[in-house]
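Lab meeting, action items carried over

1. Structure of the two-component assembly. Owner: GW. Status: complete.
Input record:
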Amino acid sequence: MYLSLQPKPDIIRNMNHNTESVAVSEHENRLQKRALYESEGTNPFAYAYNRTHTIADALALAAGCGPGEKTTHQVAVCGRIKAKRGHGKAMFVNITDQTGTIQLYASVNDLGDLTHFERLDVGDIVGVQGALFTTRRGEITINIQSFALLTKSMHSLPEKYHGLQNKEARYRQRYVDLIANPDVMAVFQKRSAVIQQVRAYLHDQGFMEVETPVLHHIYGGASARPFTTHHNELNQSLYLRIALELHLKRLIVGGFEKIFEIGRVFRNEGVSFKHNPEYTLLELYQAYADYTDMMALTESMIHGLVVATYGSPTVTYQGQLLDFSLPFKRVSMRDAILNEAGVDIDTVSDADMVALLVAKGIEDAASMPRGELINEVYDTYVEHTLIQPTFVVDYPVETSPLAKNHRDKPAYVERFELIVAKMELANAFTELNDPVEQKARLQAQQQSRDAGSVNAHGMDDDFIEALSYGMPPTGGLGIGIDRLVMLLTDAASIRDVLFFPHLKQIVT
RNA sequence: GAUCCGGUAGCUCAGCCGGUAGAGCACCUGACUUUUAAUCAGGUGGCCGAGAGUUCGAAUCUCUCCCGGAUCACCA
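Predicted assembly:
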């Protein structure tokens, strides 16, 4: 795509031999204004402005003011010009700061001469000072006594009514999107609030926030392909982390009992409406707890976030009503598969599962080991049926190399995922802490990796060494923050909750 | 990586059974001292994503490529 918000080469035409009708591009027009300010000795890029009120504060001051009423409140506010309406010897302008939008009224009565004010363009950032009043139509307005150009904008803004719609331009030039589409700023303010609330909740529960390395020698903690990088001085290959898990568990070994990290992880996989190559993951670990404790914590925290955001436990997400009332639904993976695919994974033969998968077009099912078959049947038959918040509980051991064997059911591990609107939102287990068992599991992973499985874990000897010192019984939980924010902002795509989602570079 | 949809003025979009490139907003000129998607009159502005082909003639038809979106696949 030609990035159309960039200035095109300036075009000066004189089509009808009339010297008055020389057309100048908007960008050129503004460059000329910049030069004009300089020739007048005015810096069109000021250093600061003595603001007395935010726009929201100013609006609040005049809140009780009726139509046509004047006040004695003097305010000095700053913001970007969003609209101009010339009216002969007067002019209305709307300016926006981070807190809101307010109307300005400039007239020859107070400014004497509107020449300099009229020179301002939509997009410019100004500071204005004056008294609050309310127009006949009831809009709170500042009657300008003085003003200053703070920053000259060299581009025109997108259309005032439709805003910026082109998705590619919105993602690539998010700053324009933020200027043009007020809803976008609200989404990211909500994202920040959600993360702040998560932190507050966890601190309240006695968790300590920690930070662990992003650069790993051995990647693990999830099934994913990593990004590879290189340390020049040490001449070492390094990986960007795909999970936080293995370092956080080392800290549990070290004696911390309740810790969490909110960090960026990187997965070298495809991009979609729910996948971005880098995303924000919350992981927490609690000593002396198991996955039932993690389930209670997950429920409590997410329920609290929904209520804090919407004032009730229900959310409309993409037209569907989601009910986060406590407790969330629970279903074992075995029962879920029994309901949707009609087979009991405790007794069904591998051949029957292969047949189920081939029927859905998964041709390479015959080569899958049993655990992967079960997982695939679940993905194919069950996951897309889970709209309401549902804990899917107890997973086959083969696909969960870091989770502890189920205390009652030998073929399973103690693990759950929380599925909402068909998306995996959380994943948790009772952590495997037997170093011998863990080593055997990772060796099995290593074997399938050697056999060509690119997502299988590699052996991490230091992690096994850490477990060998003794990790207390531990519950662990991971929550995809971006997806959580999607649910809480009704965002259809993960790109809408990331300031700068990953896009291909434009090669020119 | 596969399939489908899209890319036309600064922005939002028409035009697509081939025949001189359009509207609204923005911008420029003029009028207007409480407007608010202000209004009224006039005007400027295009490598129609890029390249090749078919044709007397291509925004329009064909092919290749680039970028985006949706659905898959992989994954959280």
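2. GW to write a short summary for the group page. Key points so far: Chain A is about 30% helix and 25% strand. The longest helix of chain A spans residues 182-204.
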